[in-house]
Amino acid sequence: MKQVYLCISSDIVHEGILNIIKKAQEYGEVIVGVLTDEIVASYKRTPLLSTAARMNMYENLKGVSRVVEQTSLSYREKLLQLKPDYVIHGDDWRTGVQSAVRREVIDTLSEWGGELVEIPYTKGVSATVLEDDLKNYYRSPDARRASLRKLIKLKKPIRIIEASNGLSGLIVENAQVVDDKTGAIRSFDGMWVSSLCDSTFKGKPDIELVDFTSRQRTIEEIMEVTTKPIILDGDTGGKTEHFIHNVKTLERLGVSAIIIEDKTGLKQNSLFGTAVKQTQDDPHNFAAKIAAGKKAQKTRDFMIFARIESLIAGQPMEDALIRADIYLEEGGADGIVIHSKEKDGSEIFEFMKKFREKWHEVPIILIPTSYNQFTEEELSQAGANIIIHANHLTRAAYVAMRDVANKILECHRSKEADEMILPIKEVLTLIPKE
Ligand code: SPV
Ligand code: MG
After folding, report:
1. Rounded to an integer, what distance in angstroms lies between the CA atom of residue 261 and that of residue 271?
2. How far, in Å, CA of 112 to CA of 361, rounded?
3. In sequence order, which residues have a C-beta less than 8 Å from that of residue 258 and are 6 or more positions away?
4. Which protein residues are within 6 Å of ligand 1, measured from CB?
5. Cα–Cα distance for residue pair 301/154, rounded to 1 Å
6. Average pLDDT over residues 227-240
7. Where are the domains of the chain?
8. What mean pLDDT is predicted for residues 67-93?
């Protein structure tokens, strides 16, 4: 009997999938490839059901004779293993991001005379509609909050970028680039609500002057129009008595994690380094604040990451490592942020090497503003789990706004600025009405 292969990632068995399986049966024995959690998370979002659960579901569908794991977006490896007579797919992949994958399927099948069968894609049927429903699901506080913890298990590195208002939230939500060769899609996994950027947009210094209620407003504004997980820059966390209330508020909103830094007194931005007074809290005090937050949280998903400022404050590596132990052992922190303003990155690599000798699984979070010559993959190979691009959209916006303002001043009119800005037509349609 001839063999037919089709690849599915969906969490939901919908009409479109049943149709394609029915069609596949006309060509022979149906083998379903299920994309693994890691692969789905790498190009889409964390699946609701695990690989095993999805495999089980498809295995039990009428007409499916066998289910296998597909561990890459490319079909090639699986096809070489199975050498099916046919691959079946909707014809919607002829153009767009999947066209490279399609090309490779055709070329691979031709090596043994196999064929690609494409069935007309029925618009509006299930897939896209359900995708929208799923998006709405991820908009719910519970789903959004939980998604970061799930992602940490599935993906390394996790790519986060700053969002400081609804508009930059939309940019982060929708930004994506496609690798021409592999068809792999890269997008951001979530958002960082930075104290520096939240303050800067309000024309205020980054000294914990913008209060929690205002930070909360920013988060809600972003949440209104996005679905990706949010990590809040919680500065020092403030007084423990306040922190425990704020943790509960953030959980209720659907924030996934807060990072608090071990500074005390008037907080200054870390990138000043020792040019300003940076006082670190007693490590046991700080661990107690984390422990109080952990005790206060109501869900299992919410995370508190401890940010170590020893290297910023000019303290030795040993101090940073001892503090990491204390924050994890006494505080029960869910992960460690190690910050540095050194350009060569050497102290970050040294910290990660030493830290990983003892703590193999604890998430390490980096904010590589100063040492941004390293790629996310290089930092991840050295031990990092989450990479935060902490301020880049705000800095981009400032330069763009300043240059346009100056251009109008220079030219006494705005015509010359037209090529520097978004056409008015596009502004009007930028934000969807619904
Ligand atoms: C922020 O973005 O506000 C941060 C990171 O805390 S840094 O500016 O590097 O301190
Ligand atoms: Mg900050």
Report:
1. 13
2. 44
3. 231, 232, 234, 237, 246, 247, 250, 293, 303, 304, 305
4. 194-196, 206, 233, 269-271, 367, 369, 390-391
5. 15
6. 97
7. 3-129, 139-390, 396-430
8. 94
For domain 3-129, which CATH number applies: 1.20.58.2190, 2.40.50.140, 3.50.50.60, 3.40.50.620? 3.40.50.620
Angle at 154 (CA atoms; ends 30, 57), nearest 5 degrees: 30
d(CA 30, CA 65): 5
Q: Phi, psi at residue 399, to the nearest 5°? A: -60, -45
107 belongs to the catalytic site: no
CB 296 within 8 A of CB 281: no
Out of 202, 269, 392, mutate this one to test ligand 1's pocket (max ligand atoms within 8 Å of CB): namely 269
Q: What is the pLDDT of residue 124?
A: 57
Q: Are strands 115-119 and 86-90 parallel, antiparallel or unpaired?
A: parallel
Q: Which of 37, 85, 189, 206 is labelled catalytic?
A: 206
Q: What's the angle, vertex CA 349, arms to CA 345 and CA 352, rounded to 5?
A: 140
Q: Is the pLDDT of residue 127 over 80?
A: no
**Per-residue model confidence (pLDDT) at position 45:** 78
| Neighbouring residues of 196: CB distance < 8 A, sequence distance ≥ 6 | 206, 233, 269, 390, 391, 394
* Options 3.40.50.300, 3.30.565.10, 3.30.1300.10, 3.20.20.60; CATH of 139-390: 3.20.20.60
* Structure letter (DSSP) for residue 113: T
Q: What angle do CA 341, 359, 295 make, to 5 degrees?
A: 90
Summarize the confidence of residues 332-360 as an average pLDDT: 98
- CA 219 to ligand 1 centroid distance, Å: 16
Could you tell me which of 150, 195, 193, 187 has the C-alpha nearest to residue 171?
187
